[in-house]
């Protein structure tokens, strides 16, 4: 199935073309971006029985665990750090990047000094995880007040109560056959 067929099934992903909070133009793509362009990563994280991990912040945001890349950090290191900070999970094995937002910033300067500019990528990956405890909630990140481990359909419905994009990323990963049953 080509991108246009997927776009018809998941219009919230392919239809998002400007993100005001980032002041950036976006284009959703299937595939793996150039590693050097990735500034953000969000994970469809699965525990051994096939359920997925979703989070809620103190501000009410519902999301897939993930966040911004630190200077010198590999994507695997980024995934492991964000999973522990936001979901209380340990990464088991490797991540598999399957899609990304191709980002074109309208800002004069990069958001972080170590970020590429004006073009970057916000990646989405699958990961196998083990839930090991509460999120660490570092002082420089979101305060996560709820971590749920749900079946795919229930997790997507719960995410969709806040916004469609993370729910559709989850359902896209499932539709692509990237999740274990």
Entry summary:
Helix 4 (152-160) runs antiparallel to helix 5. The protein is of the alpha+beta class. The protein has helices at residues 3-9, 11-14, 75-87, 152-160, 164-175; strands spanning 18-19, 24-30, 38-46, 52-57, 62-63, 66-68, 89-91, 96-105, 119-131, 144-150.
Walk me through the structure:
The chain is 25% helix and 34% strand. With 181 residues, the chain is of the alpha+beta class. A hairpin with a 4-residue loop joins strand 1 and strand 2. The strands form two sheets. Strands 1, 2, 3, 6, 7, 8 and 9 form a seven-stranded mixed beta sheet that branches. It has a three-stranded antiparallel beta sheet with strand order 5-4-10, with helices on one face. The chain has five helices and ten strands.
For this entry, give a set of tags:
181 residues, alpha+beta, seven-stranded mixed sheet, 10 strands
Based on secondary structure, the structural category is alpha+beta
Mean pLDDT: 95
Residue ranges: pLDDT <50 for 5 or more in a row? none
In sequence order, what are the helices and strands, one letter per element?
HHEEEEEEHEEEEHH
Given the C-alpha coordinates, what overall shape results?
globular
Distance between the termini: 22 Å
Cα radius of gyration in angstroms: 15 Å
Q: How many individual β-strands?
A: 10
Number of helices: 5
């Amino acid at each position: 199935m080509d991108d246009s067929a997927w776009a018809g099934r998941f219009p919230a992903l392919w239809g998002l073309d400007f993100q005001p909070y980032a002041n950036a133009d976006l284009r959703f793509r299937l595939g793996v971006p150039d590693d050097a362009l990735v500034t953000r990563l969000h994970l469809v994280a699965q525990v051994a029985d096939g359920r997925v991990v979703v989070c809620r912040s103190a501000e009410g945001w519902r999301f897939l665990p993930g966040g911004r890349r630190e200077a010198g950090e590999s994507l695997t290191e980024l995934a492991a750090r964000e999973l522990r900070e936001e979901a209380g999970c340990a990464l088991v094995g490797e991540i598999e990047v399957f899609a990304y937002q191709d980002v074109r910033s309208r800002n004069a300067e990069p958001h972080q000094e170590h970020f590429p500019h004006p073009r970057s990528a916000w990646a989405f990956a699958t990961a196998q995880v083990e839930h090991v405890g509460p999120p660490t909630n570092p002082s420089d990140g979101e305060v996560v007040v709820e971590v749920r481990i749900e079946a795919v359909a229930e997790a997507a419905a719960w995410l969709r109560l806040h916004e469609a994009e993370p729910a559709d990323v989850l359902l896209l990963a499932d539709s692509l056959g990237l999740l274990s049953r």
